[in-house]
Protein 1
Amino acid sequence: MPHVVTQSCVGDGSCVYACPVNCIQPTPDDPSFELAEMLHIDPTTCVDCGACVSACPVDAIKPHARLAPEELAFEAINAAFHREAPPRPLLAPVRPRLLVRDRGEDLRVAIVGSGPAALYAAEEVLTIPGALVSVYERQDRPYGLVHAGVAPDHRRTRRVSRQLDRIRAHPRLTMHLGVEIGRDLTHDRLLERHHAVIYAVGAASDRRLEIPGADLPGVLPATDMVAWYNGVLGADSTPVDLSHRRVVIVGNGNVALDIARILMMDPDALAGSDIAPRALEVLRASRVEEVVVAGRRGPEHAAFTLPELVGLTSTPGVSVRVVPEELAGAPAGPKVDLLRGLGSADGGMGRRITLRFGLTPQRVLGTERVTGIAFARTDAPGGEDLEAGMVVTAIGYRGDPVPALPFDAARGIVPNEDGRVVDPGTGAPLPGTYVAGWAKRGPSGFIGTNKGCSQDTVAALVDDHNAGLLRPVTSRR
Ligand SMILES: Cc1cc2nc3c(=O)[nH]c(=O)nc-3n(C[C@H](O)[C@H](O)[C@H](O)COP(=O)(O)OP(=O)(O)OC[C@H]3O[C@@H](n4cnc5c(N)ncnc54)[C@H](O)[C@@H]3O)c2cc1C
Ligand SMILES: NC(=O)c1ccc[n+]([C@@H]2O[C@H](COP(=O)([O-])OP(=O)(O)OC[C@H]3O[C@@H](n4cnc5c(N)ncnc54)[C@H](OP(=O)(O)O)[C@@H]3O)[C@@H](O)[C@H]2O)c1
């Protein structure tokens, strides 16, 4: 009975290291690992030992006979990947252990942020005997987007917090909640108390949609919508008005799909999840019948991933539809094939999500508040105005500058080389200063993608420690 990886895979690779026959691909040492939409078990070599099931932090792996009806598609998705994957070695890859020179005192590392990148960095530092880690988080709740981003109905994904709890409980880790670096404590002060500081501050702002009308009331960035339904402190009063029939979401990444699903699914199915009580109340009174998710490119370039599309199409009580002409000519592939099997938007009644393609936003319509949005066709003449009572921009996140650190405003990240923060003018590294996660790479990738990213940053830090490049601690207060 082979095992199957399902939708909640966060790609941290724990299963790969647990598997005795290396049947899970891609492996973290493979260049395609970072871009993979999920991991896949080869049904022809799986020995059914279940080691991967215990290793997975989000219960994403199941024996094939125990798949729920809405998960059956993942059996074929896992198998198809392996039909095309090149042959692999029999043994799973082994990550080299950190070799740390003894410098006569325990290594002290401060980590700013407490999201996945921060805690995976902490886990790696704590493999060094005697090393001490202090984590500083500005919110009163830890784990970053695991609480504040992951959708409340994605219960299995949110279970990754149990893995983070285990890292947090390490006796050589101290967590300071409600401390913002740059406001409550300076970078210099941190460097006096630690040999090194790792910034894992994420990318908390939204990318702005630069079109006329984008500032009208009724246009909301995804960051606000997500904070609202996840009950982030202060987001209760976000003006989410659902007293009309249609919402248009600009952008078609996984965040867009999350928002569309939360707006359209049965509120009773959300009750008991981590959704904010105020948001549930507003959703119960919602009159919205259709959410249109508008991508600017063709379906073969959709930013959402296949596992999330599979999950969306099996949301009870919601029909997911397409405009067939917008799929014409798109090359076949798992996503496009699945989209082609969906119903046509013409016949849509009831609660529905319409996935549109090839629409570039031009102008938000309305005078006092939004009444719709005008699109041009991206690769053809013509355009279309869509009526809407609310427009959500889900066009990606963006980092904010951290006081005392350089900032790459074009990319919205902390400029770095392999995790070492560098002065963009000279290219010289800032002593003892490192970056990991979305603040290092930009806002893309799954929770687990940050694990290898943080391990690479810690490897750079240890190299600098071994080379004697870290300054001594001058204060222990
Ligand atoms: C809406 C949304 C849903 C997602 N859903 C999924 C999903 O279902 N599955 C999945 O695998 N991935 C998901 N992701 C991606 C995943 O959440 C990210 O890959 C991951 O959280 C990035 O980790 P990070 O540690 O770099 O940043 P974050 O998780 O953002 O953590 C950064 C932390 O730093 C803190 N911080 C910032 N500045 C300071 C400061 N100056 N001082 C102190 N603390 C500070 C912040 O408060 C925050 O806690 C989602 C992303 C989004 C946006
Ligand atoms: N369940 C999950 O696993 C989950 C859930 C949420 C998020 N995440 C991850 O978190 C990361 C961030 O997700 P995201 O959805 O915020 O970002 P994203 O995947 O980068 O998608 C951004 C979308 O915005 C579009 N866009 C950008 N600029 C635009 C503009 N000016 N006008 C119109 N459209 C524009 C992009 O189109 P183009 O492609 O044409 O640029 C794309 O469709 C992703 O890696 C995602 O997979 C995962």
Protein 2
Amino acid sequence: MNIVYLNGDFLEMDQAKVSVMDRGFLFGDGVYEVIPSYKQKLIGLDYHLERLAICLNMIKIDFQFKKDDFIPIYKKLLKQNQLDDCLFYLQITRGSGDKRSYLFPKNIKPTVFICCIPFSWPTIASLEKGYAAYTTEDIRWAYASIKSLNLLPSVLLSQEALEKNAVEAILIRNQQVIEGSVSNIFLVKDKRIITPNEQACMLSGITRMLIIQLANTLSYPLDERTVRVEELYHADEIWLTGSSKTILPIIELDGKRIGKGKAGPVWKQFVKHFFDDMEMLSHNL
Ligand SMILES: Cc1ncc(COP(=O)(O)O)c(C=O)c1O
């Protein structure tokens, strides 16, 4: 059974249909969120819905989707799909017009689609083995801070990473490190954590924010600043973060060993706190 939500209805996945005139299909004209559920609790729900509202506003979709709208849908989908751990995929497009036109149609009703993707949370032991990554030019548009449905660059980069036996591509713009193709990036150097500062061409991740909060709580020095590509190769540790990734230690970059070539001590400290805090950070329904 795979029940999904579409515009007010709960349907079997293969019964959920949208028009070919839907602007999400035609233009990628919409935004999305991925909200993780851990033991039936949502992690960072308020932050995800806040980012969704900002992104809707940035692409001028005049529509609000609040916590009170989401909670009953979330509960019903979890129950009907009999899941505890999953990723909630929430997509809102501008809706369907009556013809293909770039201009926003008048009186259009957004399409709201939500499904839950079964998910197994990684264990710390499984993450600890470490991952390889590679650097490449950031081929995305300049507004990557919008969590838009236009994901072709991420699709191509994820496939390229797979073919290079890497977990992910690390994106570089004008010699500056931006983020991973589907994650944010942190470096550790001389007992300081460094992460690229927020900018229009970077998605401001919820996991990134949780880690910055955790560094504050632990009084661990953290700098948000410009990071040059050469700094990556001299880092003691590199981490990639995301809602479905937690914190991945990168031990090899472009075929070169990072730090001691194994998951570092700062990562170990943070990942432990991160998992411990998941209960506390989660939204208790
Ligand atoms: C480009 C990009 N950066 C960062 C992230 C991490 O964001 P979050 O921690 O909110 O999942 C993602 C997640 O999909 C992403 O696609």
